[in-house]
């Protein structure tokens, strides 16, 4: 029988549902909530309650946003000729942090994974193909993860996109991170680094 008060047990159970949160982290978070002011707890609860009401999917790129079109799609200064294809909105945000890519994005909503029952019909491929036609896209940059699923998804898109003739299809490079030592790199990372080498 648990020695914890029932309200704390309930809160721990909810925190454990979050990815990357184990029992100890969930308990630490639950006890932290008990130290918060009533005002902060209400703000926290309100943010959780309203998140689904205030967020939507961008009608153009399929990213999670608070408006449609999203800030990127609605920016007339973005290069309309390039679309960077990513698996989810977090990947888009990561690329935006670079502040060096000025094209558009397309969020697939995941990767092809037959083991998980995710096929092309569950992802935003049709919308991507429609954009390529409607927006006169010149380059599609494939920025899916370097996992087996990410690679399979990139190959699937490349096959579809190559049917558009003059469309340029590129894949982001994978390899040794900046500041990384070769001795600590795994075989697949080294293999990719060699495959995607470039002239100096």
From TrEMBL:
<dbReference type="GO" id="GO:0006310">
    <property type="term" value="P:DNA recombination"/>
</dbReference>
<dbReference type="GO" id="GO:0006281">
    <property type="term" value="P:DNA repair"/>
</dbReference>
<dbReference type="Pfam" id="PF21175">
    <property type="entry name" value="RecR_C"/>
</dbReference>
<keyword id="KW-0234">DNA repair</keyword>
<dbReference type="InterPro" id="IPR000093">
    <property type="entry name" value="DNA_Rcmb_RecR"/>
</dbReference>
<keyword id="KW-0479">Metal-binding</keyword>
<dbReference type="GO" id="GO:0008270">
    <property type="term" value="F:zinc ion binding"/>
</dbReference>
<protein>
    <recommendedName>
        <fullName>Recombination protein RecR</fullName>
    </recommendedName>
</protein>
<feature type="zinc finger region" description="C4-type">
    <location>
        <begin position="58"/>
        <end position="73"/>
    </location>
</feature>
<comment type="function">
    <text>May play a role in DNA repair. It seems to be involved in an RecBC-independent recombinational process of DNA repair. It may act with RecF and RecO.</text>
</comment>
<keyword id="KW-0863">Zinc-finger</keyword>
<dbReference type="Pfam" id="PF21176">
    <property type="entry name" value="RecR_HhH"/>
</dbReference>
<dbReference type="InterPro" id="IPR015967">
    <property type="entry name" value="Rcmb_RecR_Znf"/>
</dbReference>
<keyword id="KW-0862">Zinc</keyword>
<keyword id="KW-0227">DNA damage</keyword>
<dbReference type="Pfam" id="PF13662">
    <property type="entry name" value="Toprim_4"/>
</dbReference>
<keyword id="KW-0233">DNA recombination</keyword>
<comment type="similarity">
    <text>Belongs to the RecR family.</text>
</comment>
<feature type="domain" description="Toprim">
    <location>
        <begin position="81"/>
        <end position="177"/>
    </location>
</feature>
<dbReference type="GO" id="GO:0003677">
    <property type="term" value="F:DNA binding"/>
</dbReference>
<dbReference type="InterPro" id="IPR006171">
    <property type="entry name" value="TOPRIM_dom"/>
</dbReference>
<dbReference type="InterPro" id="IPR034137">
    <property type="entry name" value="TOPRIM_RecR"/>
</dbReference>
<dbReference type="InterPro" id="IPR023627">
    <property type="entry name" value="Rcmb_RecR"/>
</dbReference>
């Amino acid at each position: 029988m648990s020695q914890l008060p029932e309200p704390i047990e309930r809160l721990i159970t909810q925190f454990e549902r979050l990815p990357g949160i184990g029992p100890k982290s969930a308990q630490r978070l639950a006890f932290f909530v008990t130290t918060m002011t009533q005002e902060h707890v209400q703000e926290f609860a309100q943010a959780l309650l309203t998140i689904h009401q205030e967020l939507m999917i961008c009608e153009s790129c399929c990213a999670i946003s608070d408006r449609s079109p999203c800030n990127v799609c609605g920016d007339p200064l973005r290069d309309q000729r390039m679309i960077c294809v990513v698996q989810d909105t977090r990947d888009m945000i990561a690329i935006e942090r670079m502040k060096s890519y000025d094209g558009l994005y397309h969020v697939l909503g995941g990767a092809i994974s037959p083991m998980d029952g995710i096929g092309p019909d569950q992802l935003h491929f049709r919308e991507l193909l429609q954009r390529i036609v409607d927006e006169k896209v010149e380059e599609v940059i494939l920025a899916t993860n370097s996992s087996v699923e990410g690679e399979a998804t990139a190959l699937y898109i490349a096959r579809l996109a190559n049917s558009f003739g003059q469309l340029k299809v590129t894949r982001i490079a994978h390899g040794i991170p900046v500041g990384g030592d070769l001795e600590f790199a795994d075989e697949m990372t080294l293999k990719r680094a060699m495959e995607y080498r470039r002239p100096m």
